[in-house]
Specification:
The chain has 19 helices and 20 strands. The two termini are 45 Å apart. The strands form five sheets. Strands 12-20-19-18-15-16-17 form a seven-stranded mixed sheet, sandwiched between helices. With 583 residues, the chain is of the alpha/beta class. The chain folds into four domains: 199 residues, no CATH class; 105 residues, Orthogonal Bundle (Arc Repressor Mutant, subunit A), CATH 1.10.10; 47 residues, no CATH class; 174 residues, von Willebrand factor, type A domain (Rossmann fold, 3-Layer(aba) Sandwich), CATH 3.40.50.
Length: 583
């Protein structure tokens, strides 16, 4: 082992040991607090962390019989519901990286690859992890051996909580663990939060052991703390409603419908949601004391009316929060059956890059400010009384390649797409427009026809307004949907057009003949003839037909288990990136 590396490890070991002997905690980096005690903070001062010197973490959380055996680590972030499985897997990788580097720096020949895996496995079995999504050992969470908290009942938390025991000679492993947690937080689209100050104090709090949150709040029962928690709960309910109904506006309309007499299962909501979806939403709202059931219908409670009024008063801010959440959606990678048929590449445009300049070239755009600055500097150094511009002073702007991609989503809106499937497709359209910042259009085909729901646009409100008109019902006129998409792409002269077809069924309404499948295959051939990049996303039962359809259109096929938002966002993002950056 190099002396510098050994010195760093010994310094950290001595540093932490000295603090722990004095019953003190430390801040690691900007976001992490480490000690052998319970931590707490006040919602009014989230950057100020208390370390309770009279509350041993091992005794408090794990009911250990002895003091000073357990390290308590909290990594702070903005209020969020983190996936504990993803966090656990990043920690596992971090621990394995630690032992791998330890082998390299100390030249420990006994640390074979199998030995490193064994050491890592034993270590992660001893680390207890908790987020709002669930708790357990890192090993059990990474292996999915732990029952998670249902998404609808998760409440945002402000930190990732860890408990573990480690020999002092391996204290440097905490740096790898903290870094892994920070990366897991940011990769899920959330911000890490700086710890501004650590305060050591005594605080005798009577809590039941084993709650595992490291969040003993001074003034926990104060009015301010209760109001803070109530506000966070209200926001979580609103975000859940927005996810269930597609937008804050639709969530507001749903709550408004509960203030009138009648059956909530009637009307437009029944056409977008299955009966089971609505019942589950109402059950969740009932458990949260937002609604109550009367003899004839569900109605809002006083708390529900206050929630409805809150949404009405803060609709713009809440919509901005929803857009932020959609934009930050963490892409979950999936394994699909994929069939590739296209080698169509995007056509790139050469644009002036005003951020880069270079030396003079003929037929280039002159960078006037940069040229004048250069000439002024030269004139001053030469002692000239005024600025003169010579040929060598000229600077020109560089060029950059840009491949604009106009994406058309052709969506099966037949009756089988009702509920979660159509919500997933709508979510995909919103996510894609917000992240790519390029034009998106939506074509809906159902019953016996197809229509342009959203013409090519970059406007988020126009996209939402169009998606709100979709009501899944009827048959699957696939050929008509394809032809309407081709005509729209040609009429709008779409740049590097990308046609994405999403369906869970086989065509059952024809266009030209009496054979719906034959007509759909013929329409797909016209996609290839018009040199449109084509992507099909379908489900397993219809794989054979979809393979033929993709082949006719010279497109790529992705066969997924379910048309959920994670798989759709993953597929479309991959295809868009491959097309945009193709060479």
């Amino acid at each position: 082992m190099e002396s510098s590396e050994r010195h760093k490890r010994l310094t950290l070991e001595n540093y932490l040991s000295a603090y722990f002997r004095e019953n003190q905690g430390v801040r690691l980096g900007e976001t992490t607090v480490l000690s052998q005690n319970v931590h707490g903070n006040d919602p009014k001062t989230p950057g100020k962390i208390m370390i309770y010197t009279d509350q041993d973490a091992g005794k408090f959380y794990l009911e250990n019989q002895e003091d000073d055996l357990t390290l308590h680590m909290d990594v702070f972030h903005e209020p969020a519901s983190l996936d504990p499985i993803y966090v656990a897997r990043r920690i596992w990788q971090g621990v394995e990286s630690y032992f791998t580097q330890l082998k390299e720096h100390e030249n420990r020949l006994a640390y074979s690859d199998d030995k490193i895996k064994d050491l890592t496995r034993e270590f992660v079995k001893s680390i207890t992890l908790r987020t709002s999504g669930g708790k357990g050992t890192v090993f059990a969470l990474a292996k999915r051996e732990v029952q998670l908290v249902p998404e609808k009942t998760r409440k945002p938390e402000t930190h990732v909580h860890l408990l573990f025991s480690v020999n002092p000679e391996h204290y440097d492993s905490v740096l790898f663990i903290a870094d892994a947690v920070e990366q897991a937080i940011m990769n899920q689209g959330f911000e890490i939060r700086r710890v501004e100050k650590i305060v050591h104090c005594e605080k005798e709090i009577q809590y039941k052991p084993g709650i595992g949150i490291g969040f003993g709040l001074p003034g926990f029962k104060s009015q301010e703390a209760q109001e803070y928690r109530a506000h966070q709960n209200r926001l979580q309910i609103i975000m859940n409603l927005a996810g269930a109904f597609g937008s804050i506006e639709d969530a507001s309309r749903f709550l408004e419908s509960l203030t009138t007499a009648g059956n909530v299962f009637l009307g437009s909501f029944a056409k977008k949601h299955t009966d089971g979806d609505l019942k589950q939403t109402l059950l969740d709202l009932s458990n949260a004391n937002i609604v109550k059931k009367t003899r004839f219908a569900f109605v809002l409670t006083d708390e529900g009316k206050a929630l409805k009024d809150f949404i009405s008063q803060h609709q713009k801010e809440l919509e901005a929060q929803v857009r932020k959440s959609i934009r930050r959606h963490q892409i979950v990678r999936h394994n699909y059956r994929t069939f590739k048929n296209t080698d169509l590449k995007s056509k790139k445009s050469r644009l002036t890059d005003h951020k880069k300049t270079s030396e003079w070239r003929d037929h280039s755009d002159i960078a006037i400010p940069e040229t004048v600055v250069r000439a002024a500097a030269r004139s001053f150094l030469e002692g000239q009384p005024r600025i003169s511009i010579k040929k060598n002073d000229f600077k020109v702007y560089g060029k950059k390649s840009f491949a604009p991609i106009d994406t058309c989503l052709a969506i099966d809106c037949s009756g089988s797409m009702v509920g979660e499937k159509i919500r997933a497709v709508s979510y995909l359209a919103e996510h894609f427009l917000l992240t790519s910042k390029e034009k998106v259009s939506v074509i809906a085909f159902q019953e016996m026809n197809a229509r342009i729901v959203v013409p090519f646009t970059k406007n988020y409100q126009k996209l939402q307004d169009g998606l709100r008109t979709i009501q899944p019902e009827g048959l699957t006129p696939l050929a008509k949907g394809i032809m309407e998409s081709i005509d729209h792409i040609k009429a709008k002269r779409a740049r590097n057009p990308l046609l994405i077809l999403i369906t869970d069924g086989i065509p059952n309404f024809p266009l030209w003949t009496t054979d719906a499948q034959k007509d759909a295959l013929k329409a797909a051939e016209m996609i290839a003839e018009n040199k449109i990049r084509f992507v099909c996303i379908g489900v397993i039962p219809n794989e054979e037909f979809m393979k033929n359809l993709a082949a006719k259109g010279r497109g790529n096929l992705y066969v997924v288990d379910e048309l959920d938002k994670n798989s759709l966002v993953d597929v479309v993002t991959r295809e868009w990136e491959q097309y945009k950056y193709s060479k």
